[in-house]
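User: Um, any thoughts?
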Amino acid sequence: MEEINRIEAELADNFSSTAQKIAFATNDIFTSAECLAANGFSPLAIPQNYYEDLAARFDLADELLNRMKAANILYDKNENGAFFQYYSQLYGDGLFFEIVERRGGYGGYGTANAPFRIAAQGNSGSWKASSG
């Protein structure tokens, strides 16, 4: 139990919030994004260069790429399937929400997208990690 308290304290000291992310699964990330937007949800703004990188890494149809870009949806793929991610802006001291859709047998967590998410969160101006 002492180890968990130490980890929680470290998270709170460095990121101001012990709970960092709450994730939800969906069967249709595009419909979820549309419904959330219709209710005033503001997604994390993903920079244009992310989608340029996606186009270079994956053979995606222009229509799919444009839908992801318009909704700020991130993407990953492996030999087992595809993974879509949609993030909220930051709330309070660093809490954010993630909505994910898995297609096929994709079992990962979109690790390749983490640097883009972190950069976008840093650019949002609301996340201030201390230097410890």
Q: What stands out?
A: Residues 127-132 have pLDDT under 50 and may be disordered.
